[in-house]
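Customer escalation, tier 2.

The customer says the design service returned an amino acid string that "doesn't look like it belongs to this structure." They asked us to rerun it and document both sides in this ticket. The original structure tokens are below, unchanged.
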């Protein structure tokens, strides 16, 4: 059964399933989190990858087993798209596979941290 999961993950995201990432429960997607409005570490990394137009590293993130990391990657790739980056058909397939996932992610918005339906976060990422 786990072999089927690995195969399905690889087929969908062109990356290896990382079992340890399946159990990370402290990674949060968002910005300006908490009382002082601090960006999560991962958001700062993505902002740097976008600033340096590091599409290759963003695609490593999108192949992560962590749903939150995948959404950060889509966010970064969308920002690059907004500045003129063009994606291949294969790259767009991987992006769309993430955007088509259903479920919840751990999300912060200001002081509120909660499990949020992923569609409430990703609706704005249009890659057509």
């Amino acid at each position: 059964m786990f072999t089927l999961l690995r195969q399905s993950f690889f087929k969908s995201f062109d990356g290896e399933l990382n079992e340890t990432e399946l159990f990370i429960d402290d990674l949060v997607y968002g910005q300006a989190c908490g009382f002082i409005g601090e960006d999560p570490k991962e958001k700062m990394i993505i902002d740097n990858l976008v600033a340096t137009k590091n599409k290759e590293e963003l695609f490593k993130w999108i192949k992560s087993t962590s749903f939150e990391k995948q959404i950060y990657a889509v966010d970064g790739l969308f920002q690059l798209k907004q500045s003129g980056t063009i994606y291949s058909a294969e790259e767009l397939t991987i992006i769309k596979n993430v955007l088509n996932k259903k479920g919840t992610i751990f999300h912060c918005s200001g002081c509120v941290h909660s499990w949020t339906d992923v569609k409430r976060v990703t609706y704005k990422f249009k890659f057509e």
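Tier 2 assessment: The sequence is consistent with the input. Residues 26-120 form one domain. The chain has a mean pLDDT of 89. Sent an explanation to the customer and offered a walkthrough call.
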